[in-house]
Structure formats: C-alpha cells, structure tokens
Amino acid sequence: MKAKALICATALTAICASPGAFAQVAGLQPLGGTVEQTNALLKGWSVRRALVDEPVYNDLNDKVGSIYDVIISPDRKATYAVVSVGGFLGMGKHYVAIPVDHFEIRDGNLFLAGATKEALKSVPEFEYNKLEKATKPHKVKAE
C-alpha cells in the first residue's frame, strides 16, 4: 500500500513538474488549491483508504475493534475516531468515540493501550448528532 501511494505521488509530482503543466493560481482554480495545499495533500492521509475498517489492537495484540468513522471538529482537526466493537455480519455492533490522541501507530497498525472488547462495550454508545443535517452547509440546487 505504501509503495502504491509512493508511485502515485511520484507520478503526480512528475506530471505537475513537466513543462506542459500549469501551476494552480489562487482564485482561478475554483475547485483546486494552491501549490502549498497540493503539496500538503500529497503528504496527507486518505481516511477512507488508511483508516476506515482498519483493525484496532490492544497491548496484547488482540483485535478489539475497527475504525468506523473519523470525526472532524469545526476547526478542521480530526478529534475522535469512532470504533466499531463486536457484532457479527453487521448485527450487534457497538460504536464508541475515542479521542484520536489515545491511539498509537506501531508498524503501520493502530493500537489502543489498555483496551479490551469488554471495556469498549461498557463505554456508552456513540450516537450521531440528530441535528447534524441542520448544521451542515445548505446544498445548492441546480436550476
């Protein structure tokens, strides 16, 4: 996976650096970003590819759950990871929100120190804000 990302990043860099490539200019590229933003994008993570559905392990190397979602705060920072615990074939899963700074990454795997399935199931279940749709930016209808 890392090799694939490196190949894609290298190819994108080569295309952007080629003589025929044009630099993005702020204000002229309504959907693009600045060169600095594009460079930051190349160094960033895809939540969907790198985190969602990835297993979470404890200190004993036991799988205690999987990442279900990542919550982004209004200041644009990832603040919580929603962990899916237990269940079978999508039934009986328990979702808990854990602050992202509680996780460690070791050898490309996510670890949650001291966690067990039982301890995570005892945490009150995470529920999405029922007002979430009301607080989202309004969608613009095409005319």
TrEMBL record:
Coiled coil: none
Top-level division of the source organism's lineage: Bacteria
Taxonomic path: Bacteria, Pseudomonadati, Pseudomonadota, Betaproteobacteria, Burkholderiales
Signal sequence extent: 1-23
PRC-barrel domain span: 51-109
Protein name, UniProt field: PRC-barrel domain containing protein
Cited Gene3D superfamilies: PRC-barrel domain
Keywords attached to this entry: Signal
